[in-house]
Amino acid sequence: NAGVTQTPKFQVLKTGQSMTLQCAQDMNHNSMYWYRQDPGMGLRLIYYSASEGTTDKGEVPNGYNVSRLNKREFSLRLESAAPSQTSVYFCASSENQGATGYGYTFGSGTRLTVV
Amino acid sequence: KNQVEQSPQSLIILEGKNCTLQCNYTVSPFSNLRWYKQDTGRGPVSLTIMTFSENTKSNGRYTATLDADTKQSSLHITASQLSDSASYICVVRASNDYKLSFGAGTTVTVRA
After folding, report:
1. What is the pLDDT of residues B6-39, one digit of tens each?
2. A26-81: per-residue pLDDT in tens?
3. How many Å lie between the alpha carbon of B105 and the closest alpha carbon of chain A?
4. Cβ neighbours of residue B108 under 8 Å, at least 6 residues apart?
5. Interchain proximity B43–A106, CB inside 8 Å
6. Which of A46, B17, B48, B56 could cysteine-pair with A34, CB 3.0–4.6 Å?
7. Strand-strand pairing, B100-102 and B86-94
């Protein structure tokens, strides 16, 4: 099925461990995004990639790094996980970021717990 | 700072009944407003999108309204079904910024 695929779906890390969340889209979208969702809060943008080869910080980038490996794939890395990074992470993609009507397609999320 | 506030935080309704969710925003200048449905354990899925000139948009039993003057939107669910149980998120985009502002969502529980 066409869409955004995230792996893994669940992960438990110990404080200080590192891991990479993977995201791939097969819709030929130019822009990709990483969000985190915490209880009682709206989704917050961590990093985004407007197009292949570019990445920029979003609202809450501290503690994260990203790589736009190619047009399809956008990974999120936690170098030294902290309990404050316990959250549900969503990857999304859109055709572009300039048009007023563009839509976002979201993956199904990665539930990360840092103990 | 652009903000999106949703109310109520949660609600419970009986199957077959109607309900209305509210969204107030301070995003300016306004470009468009979307309502997303997020099922438990899934990513958000777009229900409707409205631009400045539109004040009503329907998608099946979902009807969204927009008052750009008062910066308010509502999502009306008609004849609710058990499958409507989900979180409904209001998302607003400013015309001078591609980034989206997300509300915290309203959790709707439909009971038989």
Report:
1. 999 999 999 999 999 999 999 888 888 999 999 9
2. 999 999 999 999 988 889 999 999 889 999 999 999 999 999 989 999 999 999 99
3. 7
4. B10, B11, B12, B13, B19, B21, B77, B80, B84, B85, B86, B87, B88
5. yes
6. A46
7. antiparallel
Answer yes or no: do B32 and A45 touch at CB < 8 A.
Answer: no
Q: Which residue of A has its CA nearest to B88?
A: A42
Identity of the amino acid at B48: T
Of the candidates B42, B99, B104, the beta carbon closest to that of A42 is on B104
Write down the residue that tokens 């409904």 correspond to: B88
Task: Indicate which of A34, A43, A45, A54 best probes the interface with B, i.e. most B CBs within 10 Å of its own CB.
Answer: A43
List pLDDT tens digits, range B70-102. Answer: 999 999 999 999 999 999 999 998 887 777 899
Quickly tell me which residue has 């980034």 as its tokens: B99
